[in-house]
Each structure stands twice: as structure tokens, then as C-alpha cells.
Design a protein that fits this description.
It is a single chain. By secondary structure, this protein is mainly β. The chain is built from two helices and twelve strands, in the order αβαβββββββββββ. It has two domains: 38 residues, no CATH class; 92 residues, Cupredoxins -  blue copper proteins (Immunoglobulin-like). The strands form four sheets. It has a four-stranded mixed sheet, with no helix packed on it. Strands 5-12-11-7 form a four-stranded mixed sheet, with no helix packed on it. About 34% of the residues have low confidence.
């Protein structure tokens, strides 16, 4: 405003913010930017870049992959945040495997105890996923090859 000793700093009003998210190809992203700049009907530029979001900032739709190959889970020990899904994929050529929780839960209807998660037999190329919605340490094994073990720590 001329005559009042005030000159707006246009560089302070026109800022660029970079927003980075980790996305799988199957995930959809809805990005909404709010700012003083947007409320003033001035442009706000947001850039989305895949595969660079820090793993410590888990989102409800995040998936962590575990490979089953050479009679091992890789990685065998993972730490995730509450709400993260783990996807196990059998990459063996001819061997079936499974993913079975050591932790048992009681079915309220029947009163029977069963594993918290159980993939059943995973033929080569098959996958199994489980979303961890409870904090704690969860160990698992392969029913066909009990020496195969893994751990999921949920924070």
C-alpha cells in the first residue's frame, strides 16, 4: 500500500512447499494443501515424489513387504507402526510355505484357540497380508518348515 510505509514482500507470499510421500503403485493419493497463499487465491505448488517418505512415519495404508525364499523370511525381523500391513510373498520356485502367528486368540463364538494370523499353504508366487492394529511383538513361523521364523514389532 503506497503512502502508508508498507510494501508487501511478494516472495514471502509466493512460497513453494515440497510434500513427499511413499506410495506403492496400487495406492491412491489425495493431496490437499492449505495455506495463507491458497486463501489469498495465489498459487501453491506441491510436488509429490514416490519412494522417499521416511519409514518412521507410517500411514494407515502403508505396506511392508517380506519375501519368502531360500527357506527364510527376508527381512526376518521388522519394526512397523500400528496400522501397517505386512505382505508376505512366496518367491520359491517349487516349495510351498506358510505364515502362522505364535500368538493365539480365542474365538468368542466357539471358545477355540487359533493363531492370530494364518496364511494357510502359500504355493510359489502366492501372497498373504495381515494388518497389525495392536502394538506388541508378534513372532511367526512356517508350518511346513518350523525352523523358519520371523518377528514383527509394532510400535
Amino acid at each position: 500500500m503506497v503512502g502508508h510505509g508498507y510494501e508487501p514482500n511478494i516472495n514471502a507470499l509466493l512460497s513453494t512447499k515440497t510434500v513427499v510421500y511413499n506410495m506403492d503403485t496400487d495406492m491412491k493419493l489425495k493431496l490437499i494443501c492449505f495455506s495463507l497463499v491458497a486463501m489469498m487465491s495465489l498459487p501453491m505448488i506441491c510436488v509429490v515424489t514416490a519412494n522417499t517418505f521416511p519409514s518412521t512415519l507410517s500411514q494407515q495404508n502403508e505396506t511392508v513387504n517380506v519375501t519368502i525364499q531360500n527357506f527364510a523370511y527376508t527381512p526376518s525381523n521388522i519394526t512397523i507402526t500400528n496400522g501397517t500391513m505386512v505382505l508376505w510373498t512366496n518367491k520359491e520356485f517349487l516349495i510351498s510355505h506358510s505364515v502362522v502367528s505364535d500368538k493365539k486368540i480365542i474365538n468368542p463364538d466357539s471358545g477355540t484357540r487359533s493363531p492370530m494370523f494364518d496364511s494357510g499353504s502359500l504355493s510359489p508366487g502366492a501372497s498373504f497380508s495381515f494388518r497389525f492394529n495392536t502394538t506388541g511383538t508378534f513372532t511367526y513361523y512356517c508350518r511346513e518348515h518350523p525352523f523358519m521364523r520371523g518377528t514383527v514389532i509394532v510400535t
